[in-house]
Design goal:
CATH architecture of the largest domain: 2-Layer Sandwich
Mean pLDDT: 94
Bound molecules: glycyl-adenosine-5'-phosphate
Largest sheet: 7 strands, mixed
Radius of gyration: 28 Å
CATH class of the largest domain: Alpha Beta
Structural class: alpha+beta
Low-confidence stretches: none
């Protein structure tokens, strides 16, 4: 299991999974590019999600909406009024912080300061919890302790937003040594604004969507009118969303441009509790099925005071990343809030005619909302392993075969005696069905290591024996077990191994 994110960030760069966006110009904070291996990995994750929640179900249809919509959508959804984070600027350093992620540590020192007052320091730290936030104040407090003596008690910790206004003046910001440099918290809307058409005025203002969900609600009537769906049913969408996050951080975890995989599942009000429980479990199990260890995953129910006012229940699926336990996906019971809002703002009837009760109802909604980039990051963290093979440390990405960017590498043992020709013929045959890779460069052990680092679950080698009896060796990435397979069964063997219908033999 990965403990140091830097190792993953550097592997991602070195092997072409993820690069900082526009890196040759110094990058741009909060934006990332997926390289040749990364794009395959993320696409496989999105495809697996789409197959499992849309194509293999009878009660789900898909949608692909535009990113820029009529701005009224965001009035109705509440994003124009309410989708904001409290932000604080430091007047001295021009740094910007999320006030809800700032904690103030109040230290009392035994000696008095030069004015004869008791020496105290109000030091701000940043983080999702006081534990995360403690590093900055601890360092500064240690400096002050040299002057005023060691604090007799642990500091009192107060969330910045809970400080009385008058006390905010006393706070020393995270990047300064002076008091009073922080501005009062201001509300900062997270939506990116743009203009549609030639005019740059209020009438032309539009927004990049901050979630894919609203496109689904806006199309609810269109989907129902196509006549294919009956309650209960869901509408799913995968696509880019944009949020001008104040503090993008933790690699791709909090980005300003990211992809969501969202479902809005519509049902009768009396069935909503059942479907909420169903999706909560179904989505948790999906991550476990694809390799996230259940003891690193957690389903956390929101406390009453965390719930949006219209929601009766929300649970987060959280994963223990090296930087802390953080949200992968949220499952929210949204009641009839969204459809009701869109009826109010659009003036259109978005009710559903229920054949059984012969009445029009406003369906309730269960929303499992996942992030494709966060899922990709979690699967990367989980897959990252260092182990020893033949006395050598190797780095392996143990992806689920369904997600692996390359399913198999086809390798001639040596670059002579007709082995490359036979291996290439196999490569061309397999390429029609699978993402495979041909490699004849360097020692075979080195080629295996390269594939281990790319997360390729199987290597298929053509050797001297292959030329005589038409068999090849299969090697599995995780245990390095090798076994022989007739070349004409290579395709079915690979298919079986990827689908889980075949297992790797216990020993070579
Ligand atoms: N429609 C509900 C909604 O958007 P959310 O909890 O704000 O809910 C859902 O977002 C998911 O989208 C999150 O669980 C996360 O996986 C992903 N997500 C949200 N903000 C993100 C960001 N800044 N960077 C990467 N992924 C993000």
């Amino acid at each position: 299991m990965l403990e140091d994110m830097e190792k993953l960030v550097s592997l991602c760069k070195r092997r072409g999974f993820i690069f900082p966006s526009s890196e040759i110009y110094g990058g741009i904070n909060g934006f990332w590019d997926y390289g040749p291996l990364g794009v395959e990995l993320k696409r496989n994750i999105k495809d697996a999600w789409w197959q499992d929640v849309v194509q293999r179900r009878d009660d789900m249809v898909g949608l692909d909406c535009s990113i820029i919509m009529n701005p009224k959508v965001w009035e109705a959804s509440g994003h124009l009024g309410g989708f904001s984070d409290p932000m604080v600027d430091c007047k001295a350093t021009k740094e910007r912080y999320r006030a809800d992620q700032m904690y103030v540590f109040i230290y009392l020192f035994p000696q008095v300061n030069h004015k004869g007052e008791p020496a105290e320091a109000w030091l701000a730290g940043l983080g999702a919890s006081p534990e995360d936030a403690s590093a900055i104040p601890e360092k500064k407090a240690a400096k002050l302790a040299k002057k005023f003596g060691k604090p007799e008690q642990p500091p009192q910790i107060v969330p910045y937003l809970e400080l009385p206004e008058a006390d905010r003046e006393k706070v020393i910001g995270p990047s300064t040594d002076d008091r009073g440099t922080l501005t009062p918290p201001r509300s900062f809307n997270l939506m990116f604004r743009t203009f549609v058409g030639a005019l740059e005025d209020d009438s032309a203002t539009a927004y990049l969507r901050p979630e894919t969900a609203q496109g689904i609600f806006a199309n609810f009537k269109n989907v129902v009118d196509t006549g294919r769906v009956k309650l209960p049913f869901g509408i799913a969408q995968v696509g880019k969303s944009f949020r001008n996050e104040i503090n993008p951080r933790n690699f791709t975890f909090r980005s300003r441009e990211f992809e969501q995989m969202e479902i809005e599942f519509f049902c009768k009000p009396e069935d909503a509790a059942h479907w909420y429980a169903y999706w909560r479990k179904e989505r948790f199990d999906w991550y476990v099925r694809h390799g996230l260890q259940s003891d690193r995953l957690r389903l956390r129910d929101h406390d009453k005071d965390e719930l949006a006012f219209y929601s009766t229940a929300t649970a987060d699926i959280e994963y223990s990343f090296p930087f802390g336990v953080s949200e992968l996906e949220g499952i929210a019971h949204r009641g009839d809030y969204d459809l009701t809002q869109h009826m109010k703002f659009s003036g259109k009837d978005l009710t559903y005619f229920d054949e059984e009760s012969k009445a029009r109802i406003t369906p309730h909604v269960i929303e499992p909302s996942a992030g494709a980039d966060r899922a990709t990051l979690a699967f990367l963290c989980e897959a990252y392993t260092e182990d020893q093979v033949g006395g050598e440390i190797r780095t392996v990405l143990r992806f689920h075969p369904r997600f692996a960017p390359i399913k198999a590498a086809i390798l001639p043992l040596v670059k002579k005696e007709g082995m490359p020709e036979k291996a290439e013929a196999l490569y061309h045959a397999l390429r029609k069905r699978f993402a495979v890779f041909y490699d004849e460069k360097g020692a075979v052990g080195r080629r295996y290591r390269r594939q281990d680092e790319a997360g390729t679950p199987f290597c298929i080698t053509v050797d001297g024996q292959s030329l005589q009896d038409d068999t090849v060796t299969f090697r599995d990435r995780d245990r390095c077990v090798q076994w022989r397979v007739p070349i004409n069964q290579a395709e079915s063997t690979l298919r079986g191994l990827i689908d889980g219908d075949l297992t790797v033999p216990a020993v070579s």
